[in-house]
Amino acid sequence: MHHGILLIDKPRHWTSFDVVNYVRRHVAAAEGKKPKNVKVGHTGTLDPLATGLLVLLIGKDYTRRAAAMSKHDKTYQVTMHLGANSSTGDAEGELRRVSDTVPTKQAIGELLDTFLGESQQIPPAYSAIKVQGKRAYQLAREGKAVQLEPRTIRINRISLESYEYPTVRFTCEVSSGTYIRSLVQDIGHELGTGAYMSDLRRTTVGEYDIQAAVPPDALPPAQLLQRIVA
C-alpha cells in the first residue's frame, strides 16, 4: 500500500489536477486498483502557468490532513511585468497599457517593504472562490461582475531579487490564502505603472522545500512512487 507525502515539482501548463490524476493512475496500477479507489490530494493549488512545489497527500489517512496542511505559509519566486494591467492578473489575460513611467530600483525596493505584515487583500476575479455556488472565474468568463470580499493576509518576507525594466523579480513568503496575482496588481497600482504577474514558482510549503521535489514525469512510475514518505 502506498500512503504518505510525495513532493512534486509541477511543470508549466500542467494543472494541479493533472498531477494528482497522473500519480493516482500509477498508484492504482501498482496496487491493482481502479484509480477511483485511490485517494490522492494536495495542500494547495498552483495555476497552470505556475511551476514549483506541489505537496501530494496519498492515502486516506493523509488526504484527511489536507485542510490543516493547506494553512501552511508558502514561499514564491515572482516575476512581474510593469507598464500594463491584465484582466486575469497574469500574462494570459487581456492587457491594458497603463503607463510608460520607469521607476527606480530603489523606489521598487522601498515599496515592497511597505507590504510586510498583515493587510486586507481582495482576491482576483479569476479565482476558484465560490460566489453563490459558482466559481468566481466562471462568472468572470461569462462577463459577469464579480465582487469578492477582502481577506486578511500576511507577508512575512519580501525581497527584490532583480530589476531591468519592465521586468521585476522578487521573492516572498506569505500566509495561506494570499493571491500573488493580487499582490502584483497592488504593487503596480502603488507604483503608478500597472503590473501583471508573468511568472510564478513556489519553492516552499511549510517545512517542505522544492529541493526535495521532482517533476511527475522525470522518473519511471515505480521510482516516482518510491519517493513517497510516510
Can you describe this structure?
The chain is elongated. The chain folds into two domains: 4-71 and 207-225, Pseudouridine synthase; 74-205, Pseudouridine synthase. Strands 1, 2, 3, 4, 7, 10, 11, 12 and 13 form a nine-stranded mixed sheet that branches. It has helices at residues 16-31, 60-63, 66-69, 105-113, 136-141, 180-191, 221-225; strands at residues 4-10, 40-42, 51-58, 74-82, 84-86, 95-97, 117-121, 130-131, 134-135, 151-164, 167-174, 195-205, 208-209. 24% of the residues lie in helices and 33% in strands. It is α+β, with helices and mostly antiparallel strands and 230 residues long. The termini are close together. The protein contains seven helices and 13 strands. Strand 5 (84-86) and strand 6 (95-97) form a beta hairpin.
How would the blueprint of this fold be written?
Elements: E1 4-10, H1 16-31, E2 40-42, E3 51-58, H2 60-63, H3 66-69, E4 74-82, E5 84-86, E6 95-97, H4 105-113, E7 117-121, E8 130-131, E9 134-135, H5 136-141, E10 151-164, E11 167-174, H6 180-191, E12 195-205, E13 208-209, H7 221-225
Parallel strand pairs: 3-12
Antiparallel strand pairs: 1-3, 2-3, 4-11, 4-12, 5-6, 7-10, 8-9, 10-11, 12-13
Query: How many separate domains?
Result: 2
The value of Rg in angstroms is: 19 Å
CATH class of the largest domain: Alpha Beta
CATH-derived architecture of the largest domain: 2-Layer Sandwich
End-to-end separation: 11 Å
**CATH third-level topology of the largest domain:** Pseudouridine synthase
- DSSP strand tally: 13
Are there runs of 5+ residues with pLDDT below 50, and where?
none
Largest sheet: 9 strands, mixed
Share of β-strand residues: 25-35%
Average pLDDT score: 91
Class per helix and strand makeup: alpha+beta
The SSE order reads EHEEHHEEEHEEEHEEHEEH
Instruction: Tell me the CATH superfamily of the largest domain.
Output: Pseudouridine synthase
Number of helices: 7
Helical fraction = 10-25%
User: What's the overall geometry?
Assistant: elongated
